[in-house]
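QA checklist item 7 of 12: single-chain prediction sanity check.
[x] sequence parsed
[x] length recorded as 267
[x] structure emitted
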Amino acid sequence: MARDFEALKARVRDVSYTPGTDALHRISPLLLQTQDLTATALARLTALDNSSYSHIAGSRGSLELLASVVSSSSLAGTDLAHVVLANPYEGAQVAGYPADDEAVRTARHTEAIPKMSGHLDDAVHQLDLCAIGCHYLAHGITEDLATAQEYKSAAVRQKTGPALSPAQYDALCALQGGGKLYESSTRGLGVTRVATNDGTRVSIATYRALARRGLVSADASTSLYQGQKITVTEQGRQALAQPRPRAPLSTAAATVPKAAATQGAHR
């Protein structure tokens, strides 16, 4: 709409006319186009107010701005209507009155032109406000939607659960290089296992923990006996983009005394 208002503003600013019938023919299309843009802006305002965007933080300012565009566009139409009103028409006088001579006609035109020009200038100003408002509106809506998406992404990240353990991170890293979920028969019982392309051992418990968090998925269209291809999801790739988690300090601390005790026992 900004481009439409800018184009109409240029037409109104540059319009050339002769007072009378010529002015009516040249101003009328500008007035009708302004009314069309007012109707369009009002329809957009109604649609935006009824959309899910109205529930996003910051949307009230955008709705109020679009309402101001409706108002300015309507005022521009009123200004152009005043041009039509100020225009000196060439109709015949009431019966019994002499027809205007050239001097009277010139005087009427001279008196009308400043009024018409003033209303045209006011219309240009209002259309300029409409174009500026539309530009700010597009920028504001884009920023509001981007901010809402950031909040949504942050909420999703918060729902992913606790940070990965070092073992889970290593398993996810190995599965990114390719792997399969398959079922083999051991002692007559079906046992589900994970096989990675690089040979890294990944326990089924670790795989299931990753799957529950949506970090990996298996192609269920293939039989487990044939092997279901494992894919690291976008969420999983985002997790791998983070630094590898360190082992808890408590685990490291508990390992040292145990090792020392073992050495003492051998002595």
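[x] summary fact logged: DSSP finds eight helices and four strands in the chain.
[ ] second reviewer sign-off
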